[in-house]
Amino acid sequence: HARGGVCCAWTLAGRQTQAVFRPENLLCFDCFAGTYMGCFLHNASDQALGGTMLYDLRKMTSSLCQDTCSESGYQFAGLEYGAECHCGNRISSPRAPEEDCSLVCRGERGSPCGGVGRLSIYKVEEQLPGHRKCESTSLRTDTQERFLVILCSSCTSQMGELPLAVFSRPQCFCTWTSSLFSLNQQTDNQHSSSTAPAAKARPDYYLVYQTPVLDSRCKERMFLPQRSISLVALSSFPGAGNTWVRHLIELVTGFYTGSFYFDGTLYNRGFKGEKDYWKSGRSICVKTHESGQKEIEMFDSAILLIRNPYRSLMAEFNRKCAGHLGHATDAQWRSKEWPEFVSSYAPWWASHALSWLKFGRRLLVVHYEELQKALLPQLRLITAFLNITMTEERLLCAQTNQDGHFKRSVSQRPSFDPFTPDMRRMIDSFVRTVDQALQSRNFSGLPQEYVPR
């Protein structure tokens, strides 16, 4: 890590896939920011940098990218989509306008972090460890164990792009998901302590961590290699999380999702199926909010995504007032637009679900809240419905990066309850109607949290 112009790194001993972290192995050295070269094209025909790549939707920074490329022996580091880092020894594509590299890094503000098919490229300085500039610190056993756990969880930044870190005191192994360490083979907590897992774990058990650097294969997406004659809808009421589920489906299947509409903001965020004709058969499924019989019967099957109407209405009102990631102000919640919005949209929440239950030919009902609580089982159901074989690597990637680019902060909510008693009576009656319709079609009813019953 870097601190005050000084970088610290751990020297590694043992096999290539094994790392032992000890205080005496800590080396500190000077580090400097690289030189910004500009914005460059980076697409299928013009690859600006052709070396290694790392991918981190949560905390990518320009310094992390530069350090990674430098430590790997590359001269240039390029950032794309605000979350991807590419390395290389020469720039092989034309320069692009600077405004094309307008996305900010997910882990910091103020630094250019590329765009869609564009790299913000830096020439990195040599940052190899020099002579020791700081003394090793003696750590108590329990403190050292906690340091080992933290370092083990990020060991792939030194060892390569491997999705799992496996801890067995005092060693940390970097590995792929496999039949040995599979996501569905975890045991209960009786074999380890929640307060000091590394110190208390039984010697015949391993503690497995997901690393922050992902397998680059998770990033690769494409249109279906053969056009499908069957159209699958991903249908939801607005504000129900359709974009989030599209993100998950693309991560776990590797195929683009399409849309009945066109949203330039989504396209610029990497949803390339936005520009494809929705009936082309090249997308794994197609987003739609339509609820008319004619529109429903255009699809051969559908994933019907349902969310708590209270949450859906608030999410859609936020979007209308402040965009995909913004929040409505208290003044907007108190304005006349809010009750008018509820009186118009709340009946649509119910009619949307009822119409798809009535006219949909082949349905998989997915509840947003169940997807949040049990992501992996729900993703398995979705991929099975889509007739897609799913790899453990992609499932791990989807779990690690489930938030994606469109996670609205829950911290900024109205300072008061925007739903009046009359609104609640109306919405609750719609909840009961949809719940009964689901059960009459032999689907599970709505989650209990929607309304006390």
From TrEMBL:
<dbReference type="InterPro" id="IPR000863">
    <property type="entry name" value="Sulfotransferase_dom"/>
</dbReference>
<feature type="domain" description="WSC">
    <location>
        <begin position="33"/>
        <end position="125"/>
    </location>
</feature>
<dbReference type="Pfam" id="PF00685">
    <property type="entry name" value="Sulfotransfer_1"/>
</dbReference>
<protein>
    <submittedName>
        <fullName>WSC domain containing 1b</fullName>
    </submittedName>
</protein>
<dbReference type="InterPro" id="IPR051589">
    <property type="entry name" value="Sialate-O-sulfotransferase"/>
</dbReference>
<keyword id="KW-0677">Repeat</keyword>
<dbReference type="Pfam" id="PF01822">
    <property type="entry name" value="WSC"/>
</dbReference>
<dbReference type="InterPro" id="IPR002889">
    <property type="entry name" value="WSC_carb-bd"/>
</dbReference>
<dbReference type="GO" id="GO:0008146">
    <property type="term" value="F:sulfotransferase activity"/>
</dbReference>
<comment type="similarity">
    <text>Belongs to the WSCD family.</text>
</comment>
<dbReference type="InterPro" id="IPR027417">
    <property type="entry name" value="P-loop_NTPase"/>
</dbReference>
